[in-house]
Design goal:
Layout: E1 4-8, H1 12-24, E2 28-32, H2 35-44, E3 49-52, H3 61-70, E4 79-83, H4 88-96, E5 101-104, H5 109-123, E6 132-134, E7 137-140, E8 145-148, E9 151-152, H6 157-167, E10 173-175, H7 176-184, H8 194-207, E11 215-219, E12 241-245
Parallel strand pairs: 1-2, 1-3, 3-4, 4-5
Antiparallel strand pairs: 6-7, 7-8, 8-9, 10-12, 11-12
């Protein structure tokens, strides 16, 4: 479950410094030197987080941030601005454009990594690689282990990703299409009914511990709501079936 970070920086030395330190911290890093290249990369595959310079050739980093926040597909993507613009009004403008954090150059590589992890914990907890405990369930993404009341539960890779996503997105409802985007990735094209298969497997694995009842199918929703964490897996027809999980 490696987290992918896209770094947008036009100065090669800084780009290399950022990329090396993020790789050493365990992240997968993609690099671009302009906002236009970044948009192309994002259209191909949505990164988990964006480290974005302000002063870029062509479109500015602030302009790109505003564009990403206006697009439903990229609206929730975490953004950290890394820039030499240090004035208070610059920081305010960057944050108002949609940045989740604002780091000024020169910067500490250790601080950058720490802030990346902090933003992921806040905005995308399922990517933070920290153990999650809810009720009798404990999931550790680093060791790929799941325990229920101290007893191990065997899960396949996809079922593990689904459970991790559900445990970090409680009290919400998701459609099949949304789960495909969130768990498989929006650049993966597979049949939506695949979700049902993996949900059934997940529920089966949770049944012995009694946690299978946390997963529920919500019919006729027509889409996601913010009622209870979304997921479930059973049968149902079309996009009017959403998945809900109670934790």
């Amino acid at each position: 479950m490696t987290t992918t970070i896209l770094v947008v920086e036009d100065e090669p030395a800084i780009l290399e410094l950022v990329a090396i330190n993020l790789k050493h911290a365990g992240f997968m890093v993609e690099r671009t030197g302009s906002a236009e290249e970044a948009e192309t990369a994002i259209r191909s595959a949505l990164p988990d987080l964006l480290v974005l310079d302000w002063m870029l050739p062509g479109q500015s980093g602030v302009g790109l941030a505003k564009k990403l926040r206006a697009d439903e597909r990229t609206r929730e993507m975490p953004i950290i601005m890394l820039t030499a613009r240090v004035r208070e009004e610059d920081k305010v403008q960057g944050l108002e454009a949609g940045a989740d954090d604002y780091i000024t150059k020169p910067f500490s590589p250790r601080e950058l990594v720490a802030r990346v992890r902090a933003v992921l914990r806040r905005r995308a907890p399922h990517l933070a690689d920290e153990a999650v405990e809810i009720g009798t369930l404990m999931l550790n993404p680093a060791t790929h282990r799941v325990l229920a009341a101290g007893q191990p539960i065997e899960l396949g890779p996809t079922e593990f990703r689904l459970l991790f996503f559900f445990m970090t997105h409680t009290e919400r409802v998701y459609t099949r299409a949304q789960l495909l985007d969130e768990v498989w990735g929006d650049h993966i094209f597979i049949e939506e009914r695949t979700v049902d298969v993996h949900i059934r497997r997940l529920r089966s694995a949770l049944e012995l511990s009694g946690n299978h009842e946390r997963v529920e199918t919500v019919r006729g929703t027509g889409g996601a709501t913010t009622a209870s964490c979304g997921a479930a897996g059973s049968t149902g027809s079309g996009h009017g079936v959403a998945r809900r999980v109670f934790f």
